[in-house]
C-alpha cells in the first residue's frame, strides 16, 4: 500500500514541485517587499467583476476585478487583480462601493495588489521546503534500502 511513496517518480515530483514553490514564494516575497517599500497607494475603480461558481453547490470563489486607476504621473492604467471572496461578494451585491484600494509600483504600475491582501510568500516557501526535503528523504531512503537488499 505504501509502496507508491518509495517510487522514484513520486520523490522526483516532490523535489521538483517543492523547488518550484520555493522559487514562486521567493518571487512573491520580492514583489511584496517592493510594494511595501516604495509602492504607491491609490483608489481604483472596478469596471468589471468576474467570479467562478461551482456547478453543483453554486459556491462562488476566485473573484477577479478589472480595474482602472490613474498613477501619480497621470497615466491611466487598466488591469485586473484578484480580490478576497468577501470583498467580491460585497461588490457583486452592490453593498460596497465599486472601488478598491490598491498599491502599485511606480516603475511598473501593472505590478499591484489589493491593499488588504496579506503576504503569503513565507508559507509558500515553507511548504516548498517541506516538499523538497520529503522528496530528498524518499530518494535517500530508497537508495539505502536498495543497497541493503543487494
SSE inventory with pairings:
Blueprint (H helix, E strand, L loop, with lengths): L7 H31 L1 E14 L6 E11 L5 E8 L1 H8 L6 E7 L2 E7 L6 H29 L1
Antiparallel strand pairs: 1-2, 1-4, 2-3, 4-5
Summarize this structure as a short list of keywords or feature phrases:
five-stranded antiparallel beta sheet; elongated; 150 residues
Descriptive report:
Helices cover 45% and strands 31% of the residues. The chain is elongated. β2 and β3 form a beta hairpin. α1 runs antiparallel to α3.
Computed structural class = alpha+beta
Helix proportion range? 40-55%
- What's the overall geometry? elongated
Largest sheet: 5 strands, antiparallel
Number of folding domains? 1
Share in β-strands? 25-35%
Low-confidence stretches: none
* Rg for CA atoms: 22 Å
Gap from first CA to last CA? 23 Å
Count of DSSP strands: 5
The strand line-up of the biggest sheet is 3-2-1-4-5
